[in-house]
Write a structure and sequence with these properties.
The chain has a single domain (about 5-280), classed as Rossmann fold (3-Layer(aba) Sandwich). The chain is globular, with a radius of gyration of 20 Å. By secondary structure, the protein is an alpha/beta fold. It is built from ten helices and ten strands. The longest helix has 19 residues, at about 260-280.
């Protein structure tokens, strides 16, 4: 079994300076987290705010170094606290954030946004960069005509498609997606989730998908890891966790979260698309 990314006993400590009524202290945000994600599969990390899921996502995306523990990419140990990741390693893993507008420079044309990773990490010509960027726009459901437009000219769903396109420009093997559809309307969520599923199949991508929305997790995940207060309290296949959650926290989380039927939304979107095609055909 090939694992794209693995973690062993990952911890993360934050040092909080002292104030008028107390001294400095250390807060442990992650408490010995173990995980492994098989190549071409999706691990969903689930938990409430403050559970440590986004902290772990930043470590997996090579943004932050863990305080201790071992992180492996394709079997090789990665320690960015000792050595900054080189171009080859940086191209392997990319991150898609929750707010697509906040992650796009409003003064940059979309074409420049997409080409920027190649400018920094490759030596390909300007013409080839533009060709790849236009082709990637098509891959995510947009078009070459969008190349010279600005972020404010797009809807939220389109901006998230652009953010996904940018993440794919260096041909990564791993995408870390931190609440990538939570800011979108439900019908748009279904469209973006469909896109992510299609891209995963086409490029054999591995996903680490951070979410608090169980309906989204049920739709996209292969495996689920539930976190609470920096610890993993339950993990298993999607079918196992949803059919028989064993930890009290998981049971409480499932009971307290309203679940929307993403499959029903997807079917409704497909029916509307077919109807529009029928009218224009």
């Amino acid at each position: 079994m090939n694992f794209t990314v693995e973690g062993k006993a990952i911890t993360q400590d934050y040092h909080v300076p002292g104030g008028m009524f107390g001294g400095a202290k250390t807060v442990r945000a992650l408490k010995g987290v173990d995980f492994a994600v098989e190549q071409g599969k999706t691990l969903a990390i689930v938990g409430e705010s403050g559970s440590g899921k986004s902290t772990l996502a930043r470590i997996i995306a090579l943004i932050d170094a863990p305080s201790s523990g071992e992180l492996r990419m394709d079997g090789d140990v990665v320690d960015i606290s000792r050595r900054r990741p080189g171009r080859g390693l940086r191209s392997k893993v990319q991150m898609v954030f929750q707010n697509p507008y906040g992650s796009l420079n409003p003064r940059q044309k979309i074409g420049d946004v997409l080409m920027e990773p190649m400018v920094i990490n490759t030596s390909v010509s300007t013409a080839e960069r533009q060709e790849r960027a236009e082709a990637m726009l098509v891959k995510v459901g947009l078009g070459p005509e969008h190349f010279n437009r600005y972020p404010h000219m797009f809807s939220g769903g389109q901006r998230q498609r652009i953010a996904i396109a940018r993440a794919l420009m260096l041909n990564p093997t791993l995408l870390v997606l931190d609440e990538p559809v939570s800011a979108l309307d439900l019908s748009v969520q279904a469209q973006v989730l469909n896109l992510l599923a299609d891209l995963q199949e086409e490029f054999n991508l591995t996903y680490v998908f951070v979410s608090h929305d169980l309906s989204v997790v049920k739709y996209i995940a292969d495996d689920v890891m539930v976190m609470s207060q920096g610890e993993v309290v339950e993990k298993g296949s999607r079918e196992e966790v949803f059919a028989n959650p064993t930890h009290p926290y998981t049971q409480q989380l499932f009971a307290a979260t309203p679940v929307t039927n993403i499959e029903a939304i997807r079917a409704r979107v497909e029916r509307r698309r077919a109807l529009r095609m029928g009218k224009t055909g």
